[in-house]
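Hey team,

Sharing the Anti-sigma regulatory factor, serine/threonine protein kinase run so nobody has to redo it. Sequence (159 residues) first:
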Amino acid sequence: MDADFSISLPRQAYTVAVARDVLGTLLVRAGVCGDCVDDILLAVSEACANAIDHGGPARDYRVEAEMGGRWCELRISHTGRAPDPVALAERFTTDHTPLPGLEAESGRGILLMRYLMDEVAFEGEPRTTVLLRKRLTACDGPPEESAADQVPAQRYALM
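Structure output:
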């Protein structure tokens, strides 16, 4: 299924749940398997939380998704203050990024995104954007025997 999705939300904490609900519905209806939907929604939630926490003075942020036959690409962006590109690039590309201390309340989002997605990138201008990509592969085994009048659903994993 090819699909494009875009939503603009105010930079308020409650909107992370809105983005998750709308995007989750799109992914489930597209036939993406449950485990992969969970991974994508967690990665997107982290990116949205970062846009809310660090996107000032922008008043809103945008969540966009494109699904093609073999891939899913997500972009979470805002027009607010751009972070230091060198420090951010290092966090996105370094294989041995240290974990924050146990007492730290933040600092794990980028690590989670990198673990859950196939590709994670940062784009600076004109919008500060986190790019998340997953590849589609068949995840569920052969469909269980079903009644003759039911059509088996093909589900896909984003690997």
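The helical segments are 15-29, 34-54, 85-93, 109-116.

Ping me if you want the raw files.
A.
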